[in-house]
Amino acid sequence: MDEKYEVDLAVVGSGGAAMSAAIAARQAGHTVVLIERGVLGGTCVNIGCVPSKTLLAAAGARHTALANPFGGAPTGAGPVDLTALVRQKDELIEHLRGAKYADVAAAHGFEILPGQARFLDGRTMAVDGRPLRARTYLVATGAEPAVPNLPGLEQVEPLTSTTAMELDQVPESLVVIGGGYVGLEQAQLFAHLGARVSLVGRVAPRAEPELAARLREIFTQDGITVIEEHAGSVATEGGRAVVTTVSGRQVRGARVLLATGRAARTDGLGLQSAGVEVDAAGFIAVDAHQRTTNPRIYAAGDVTGAPQFVYVAAATGRVAARNALATDAEDALSQVDYAGLPAVVFTRPQLASAGLTEAQVLARGRACECRVLDLSEVPRALVNHDTRGAVKIVADATTGTVLGVHALADGAGEIMLAATYAIKAGMSVDDLADTWAPYLTMAESLRLTAGLFRNQMPTSCCA
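Above: the chain sequence. Below: its structure as tokens.
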């Protein structure tokens, strides 16, 4: 006798992976329900990309006014009203939560059910205790800031990237622990808002060293104290936090902000009851098709330990939905293609990449050639009076095929779309050097850097 299901696909979560999966399922004619125990929209719109980037834009506007390179057009900036900025940020979030999530769900015809989802066994889920039977399930609950096991941390009420976005006053001083993308963005955000900031941790540990070194210099120019060591302990002294590094160096601040990674949000799901295994770091283990150790249950997005970008979450969600609901064996072979994957750190200037680093290429046993172009050779940077940064291309040593593009520049993230296309299309550095590039754009730096593979003599504008 056939099993009876209430819905074809039950998705736990309502962020990028969940919404993408639901839309894909509905477009294929399947019934879907999303289950959300918290606020609609998941991490990106509520506590991640949207709030951090709008506050970064505000901080950047203030810093641009203070660091204006054009003496003939004087500018200025006064004190920051963080309460007003946070209110403006919250208004934007509320608008997007409705326009991009609630309204989209209504348009595609799937329900968003509030409540805590928990697996009762490998086939049945309960939502706030009410059983729900679906043909297949997708876990897309995301991740949250990880709290390191740091002695004394409980004494200082540390901030995270989530709680920092809710402050109503700029701290007089702040110690950021962690030099990854979250730590870099948060450190510069509060420095540009007027706080005295110290950063403890290696700057951009996964970035090309040439670019990380330049970003370190920029942070120093911004007045940020950078200590590239691991934090060893935290204490309080005279009402201030004291962070001691493993070598014994100390740095003090009114507040401490943790930016040491992300942890999967799986509490309360009853994964063990469903036979769903997690890896050593606590992320849900999935195969190349987003299937968990229970063939009826799939997982997508940050909860799986995939690259922590909302566009990756969306891609894995689409793949998971297609595979989970496939009726033909051939349809179940879909998987995410990570070739040319772009990434952007929204510092000023931005640190961005697409494809492989030089170290990654060498680790795969391939020979490569690289060229680095300083922004002092880019006309757009010269007219902006801001030549801080560089562009690096990593290419196959034999074929010249572009394997990776990396940039530290104003608008570096915008350059990465073209870089991703070039990598996905298998273009060579000659192809890039011979491709049209509009003059006086930062994207022209791609063509200029590619030209260095032919010769490294100076060139005229547009030549």
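The chain has twelve helices and 21 strands.
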